[in-house]
Inverse folding.
């Protein structure tokens, strides 16, 4: 039964069109492709907004609340970073890869992996470690979306910052996330984390 | 009333009498007994809301400041805006802990911070010294609110030696 329908479908596909013109099919196909691609990308970008991220209560009640008092949320200049700026790569191939990984988060939402405060706190260290590992492996790529060490003016920084950035960061010995853990969300229990008590 | 009750009442009344009689008469010099309500705002009229002063900036010199006496906890010469200091993590120690000072260049927490209350030195920072902000503070750039008459011991000894 299935074999028969597949066969008939294949017969329709392999034969040339009898009523529709070539121009209609080609140009129409092209236009339809553009519309599809635009729609697909728009939907993808909608999932790349802060509003979308905090539509889940797990995010809104936990990490978003912690973000609100930090410098990336509100600061002197008003230049800020939203969820995708740090958690989703900007260039297309890496972005799609991350979006495919996000199916894990869809699973988590459906099956409630962190849907209570207690569950969230239990998973906290593990989730943080994932993010630290990600940023370490891509050399803090998301930080460098906005912060460029090449154009950092050390004379305007605090003495400690200028020293640390001009030595460790400039040589590539360390990357942003090595020192700036907890810059956006609160730290989990840091016992056992390298560089912390 | 019992005998003891009467005795207690009598003792109370005698005490009260003694207190009222022992009060010194007010000297002729103090005319205004009520203290001034000026405070730091400078205005006695408490019905008006004075415009609050602008928020002050943290003094970030990154250099140690002079200490007024040996036991004084040094003041923090940099901003600690957003530094997490709770059960989960101590961000101060991420630079000032013993194992971190080689890389950070920050002064190590003094050895007194490793001692428990019996004077026993522990391997890590003692829990009683964990919350840095209980003793160490930042300094802001503000004019002095009150005049400070504190005299350093060295200044005191110098005066004594001169005499």
């Amino acid at each position: 039964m299935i074999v028969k329908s597949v066969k008939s479908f294949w017969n329709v596909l392999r034969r040339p069109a009898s009523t529709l013109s070539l121009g209609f099919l080609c140009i129409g196909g092209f236009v339809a492709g553009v519309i599809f691609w635009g729609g697909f990308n728009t939907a993808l970008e909608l999932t790349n907004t802060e509003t979308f991220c905090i539509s889940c209560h797990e995010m809104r009640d936990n990490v978003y609340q912690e973000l609100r008092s930090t410098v990336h949320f509100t600061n002197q200049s008003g230049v800020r970073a939203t969820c995708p700026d740090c958690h989703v790569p900007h260039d297309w191939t890496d972005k799609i890869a991350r979006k495919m990984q996000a199916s894990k988060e869809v699973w988590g939402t459906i099956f409630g992996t962190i849907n209570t405060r207690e569950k969230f706190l239990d998973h906290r260290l593990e989730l943080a470690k994932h993010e630290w590992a990600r940023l370490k492996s891509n050399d803090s790529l998301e930080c460098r979306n906005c912060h460029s060490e090449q154009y950092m003016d050390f004379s305007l920084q605090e003495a400690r910052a200028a020293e640390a950035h001009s030595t460790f960061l400039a040589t590539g010995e360390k990357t942003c996330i090595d020192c700036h853990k907890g810059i956006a969300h609160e730290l989990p229990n840091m016992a056992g984390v390298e560089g912390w008590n | 009333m019992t005998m003891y009750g009467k005795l207690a009442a009598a003792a109370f009344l005698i005490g009260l009498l003694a207190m009222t009689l022992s009060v010194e008469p007010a000297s002729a010099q103090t005319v205004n007994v009520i203290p001034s309500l000026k405070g730091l705002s400078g205005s006695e009229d408490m019905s008006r809301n004075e415009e609050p002063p602008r928020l002050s900036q943290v003094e970030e010199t990154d250099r140690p400041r002079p200490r007024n006496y040996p036991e004084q906890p040094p003041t923090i010469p940099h901003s600690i805006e957003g530094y997490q200091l709770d059960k989960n993590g101590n961000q101060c120690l991420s630079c000032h802990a013993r194992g971190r000072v080689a890389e950070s260049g920050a002064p190590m927490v003094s050895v007194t911070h490793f001692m428990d209350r019996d004077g026993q030195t522990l391997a890590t920072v003692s829990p009683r010294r964990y919350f840095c902000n209980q003793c160490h503070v930042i300094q802001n750039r503000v004019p002095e609110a009150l005049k400070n008459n504190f005299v350093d011991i060295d200044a005191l000894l110098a005066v004594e030696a001169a005499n």
